[in-house]
Amino acid sequence: MNLTKHFTLEEFLNSDTAKKKGIRNVPNEAEIDWMLFGAIHVLEFLREKLNRPIVITSGYRSRELNKFVGGVPNSQHCLGQAADIRATADEQRVICDILRENPYIDQCIVERTKNASWIHVSWGPRNRKQFLAIKK
User: Dihedral of the CA atoms 100, 50, 91, 79 (nearest 10)?
Assistant: First the structure.
């Protein structure tokens, strides 16, 4: 199901972990509405400014999937209000700077582990405008 010109509901729901472990990862209508909001107001905005595709590495997570992958209990992923996106080290600053212009951003968190990095982007009613970097 297309949410926007460049983003589908399936991209938000895709989870290799859920598939491998048989975890049900099905959102309700309100969660789909939030994913639609994020796709329209945040991800399409970012894609237009970057002029390149945005790859969602983790979108919606059911509570069971979120717990299994070690997500925080109050994760916005469980509400359809967040997406982790692929970003090289060179792109991270540019992406964060672009997202600072967006009035719908709740959080933009550059997350790094020893072997990977990504950007957590969230939206929703809080609009905290938080820009953080976290090493795990």
Answer: 60
| C-alpha–C-alpha distance, residues 53 and 39, integer Å | 13
Q: What is the DSSP string of the chain?
A: -BSSSS-BHHHHH--HHHHHHT------HHHHHHHHHHIIIIIHHHHHHHTS---EEE----HHHHHHTT--TT-GGGGT-EEEEE--HHHHHHHHHHHHT-TTEEEEEEEE-SS-EEEEEEESS----EEEEEE-
- Cα–Cα dist 134/116, whole Å: 12
**pLDDT 10s per residue in the chain (136 long)?**
999 999 999 999 999 999 999 999 999 999 999 999 999 999 999 999 999 999 999 999 999 999 999 999 999 999 999 999 999 888 999 999 999 999 999 999 999 888 888 999 999 998 899 999 998 7
pTM exceeding 0.85: yes
